[in-house]
């Protein structure tokens, strides 16, 4: 089972578009050696095992490379490759495993290029790198971007690089001059750069002078999403114009877009040298515009094209400003550029506002203060009474790095004196004193009520023992019997004055007492009872 064959080394895989080539080195001195390779691919990154398969196109190969393009169909899966040397029944150990994800190591091939020299310009038509292949690694051809490198075919050539669409026109070239160029396809989102196309050279022709009725100096003026196209007219006779536009994405396609131009409504057969084309503009794409001029002989001439990217081409106008004084605050109300009804300006730019305010006085040293806000309402405090303040506002957007001109200055005078703060202070002090008085009175009333309740229901002292339970004894008295006839008890209380004691005869006093007792009309008690009553 032993063998003297060595394993292949330095395995490499080269991929251009969907063309796969396996290469390796072999250090053995053996003759009549062939090489065979195997591969396996994994369904996903979590799969650990997969069966090895023969690599089609790389079996019994006598050289040091083989093409296995037909064997690979999964461009985004992990693949393992290995190879061994073979001679008759002998086979070397398998080489180390080469791991790859085809898309990651694939290189973009050169695009196809067609050239045409006409009227001093070079027309270029570019086709995708995999245009002629059945299997494609990049399915979305619109994701390709193309870079053109062009130079004069001379010893002192200066290279010029620019991005172009699949169908492009290169002008501003010298007549009767040979230019060479090459084109590269790129995938910006994947940071991939492809191979350049073979160098192609072409000689320019002389440019036919445009007729005088052609529109020149075509330009776009846009303010607050109101778009106007302007151009110049050098023709002295009658000429009419048609303004045409093309949706920008059509130039990204590899199809001929020359028939896709449309007329701008309201800008057909006009004689003015300007046109409002806002009706065809949205913020979701970009556009190209041109002017077709038609003279009295019905001959037409097309102007150069101008590109319009709405949110970039558009300029922001100054906002509207209103100021008002409330108490000791300066209120600033801002209207977005174009007015509150201009929803495109409000929703597309995420505007902020820069407020400048200052004292309008003869003192040039007064400082101009700045404040930035996101809202359309702002306030300024710490104002000086009886002073003129001026305000102006600028709208700006950080996303598009744009700013408007400042608005017209608005000035307003603050009220004289600070009467209102004194009134507020006096009102506050009076209210505070009133609250304190009410709180004190309420506390005193609650304290008195507490003492009364405590005195009545929870007395701190007890009645003397000689009168304790007096009321109960009185109610429980059994002197009166229900079966006896009630008899009135009467007693004579005599007031004895100290000064007259010596003048009253004790005997008379005793006689009166005796008579009262004998009568029986006032009492049926004995002497003891009478004494008690007197006592």
UniProtKB/TrEMBL annotation:
Transmembrane segments: 419-447
Recorded GO MF terms: type I interferon receptor activity
Residues forming coiled coils: none
InterPro entries linked to this entry: FN3_dom, FN3_sf, Ig-like_fold, Interferon/interleukin_rcp_dom, Type-II_Cytokine-TF_Rcpt
Residue ranges constituting the Fibronectin type-III domain according to the UniProt record: 315-417
Top-level taxon in the UniProt lineage: Eukaryota
Pfam families assigned to the protein according to its UniProt record, in alphabetical order: Interfer-bind, Tissue_fac
Disordered, as annotated region: 507-535
Classification via SMART domains: FN3
SUPFAM superfamilies assigned: Fibronectin type III
Key words, A-Z: Membrane, Transmembrane, Transmembrane helix
Zinc among keywords: no
GO cellular component, one term: plasma membrane
PANTHER family, A to Z: INTERFERON ALPHA_BETA RECEPTOR 1, INTERFERON/INTERLEUKIN RECEPTOR
UniProt-recorded name of the protein: INAR1 protein
Phylogenetic lineage: Eukaryota, Metazoa, Chordata, Craniata, Vertebrata
């Amino acid at each position: 089972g032993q063998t003297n064959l060595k394993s292949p080394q330095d395995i490499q895989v080269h991929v251009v578009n969907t063309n796969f080539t396996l290469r390796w080195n072999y250090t053995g001195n053996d003759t009549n050696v062939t090489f065979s390779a195997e591969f396996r691919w994994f369904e996903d990154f979590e799969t650990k095992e997969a069966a090895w398969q023969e690599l089609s196109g790389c079996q019994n190969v006598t050289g040091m490379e083989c093409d296995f393009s037909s064997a690979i169909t999964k461009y985004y899966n992990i693949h393992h490759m290995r190879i061994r040397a073979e001679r008759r029944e002998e086979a070397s150990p398998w080489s180390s495993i080469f791991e790859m994800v085809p898309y990651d190591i694939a290189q973009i091939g050169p695009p196809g290029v067609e050239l045409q020299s006409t009227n001093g310009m070079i027309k270029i038509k570019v086709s995708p790198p995999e245009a002629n292949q059945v299997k494609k690694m990049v399915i979305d051809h619109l994701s390709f971007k193309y870079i053109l490198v062009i130079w004069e075919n001379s010893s002192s050539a200066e290279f010029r690089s620019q991005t172009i669409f699949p169908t492009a026109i290169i002008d501003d070239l010298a007549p009767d001059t040979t230019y060479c160029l090459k084109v590269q396809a790129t995938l910006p989102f994947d940071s991939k750069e492809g191979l350049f196309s073979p160098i192609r050279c072409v000689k320019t022709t002389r440019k036919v002078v445009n007729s005088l009725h052609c529109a020149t100096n075509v330009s776009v003026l846009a303010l607050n999403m109101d778009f106007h196209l302007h151009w110049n007219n050098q023709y002295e006779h009658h000429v009419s114009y048609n303004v045409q536009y093309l949706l920008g994405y059509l130039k990204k396609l590899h199809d001929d877009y020359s028939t896709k131009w449309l007329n701008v409504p309201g800008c057909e057969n006009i004689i003015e040298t300007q046109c409002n084309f806002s009706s065809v503009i949205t913020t979701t794409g970009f556009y190209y515009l041109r002017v077709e001029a038609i003279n009295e002989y019905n001959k037409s001439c097309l102007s150069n094209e101008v590109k319009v990217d709405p949110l970039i081409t558009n300029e922001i106008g100054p906002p509207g400003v209103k100021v008002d004084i409330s108490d000791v605050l300066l209120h600033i109300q801002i209207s977005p550029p174009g007015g509150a009804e201009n929803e495109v300006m409000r929703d597309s730019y995420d505007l902020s506002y820069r407020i400048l305010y200052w004292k309008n006085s003869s003192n040039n040293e007064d400082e101009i203060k700045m404040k930035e806000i996101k809202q359309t309402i702002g306030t300024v405090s710490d104002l000086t009474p009886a002073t003129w303040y001026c305000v102006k506002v600028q709208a700006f957007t950080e996303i598009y790095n744009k700013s408007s001109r400042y608005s017209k200055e608005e000035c307003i005078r603050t009220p004289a004196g600070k009467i209102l703060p004194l009134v507020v202070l006096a009102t506050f002090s009076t209210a505070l004193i009133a609250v304190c008085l009410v709180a004190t009175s309420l506390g005193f009333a609650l304290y008195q009520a507490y003492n009364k309740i405590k005195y009545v229901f929870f007395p701190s002292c007890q009645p003397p023992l000689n009168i304790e339970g007096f009321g109960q004894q009185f109610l429980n008295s059994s002197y009166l019997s229900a079966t006896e006839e009630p008899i009135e008890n009467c007693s004579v209380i005599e007031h004895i004055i100290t000064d007259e004691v010596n003048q009253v005869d004790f005997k008379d006093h005793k006689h009166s007492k005796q008579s009262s007792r004998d009568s029986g009309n006032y009492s049926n008690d004995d002497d003891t009872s009478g004494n008690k009553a007197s006592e």
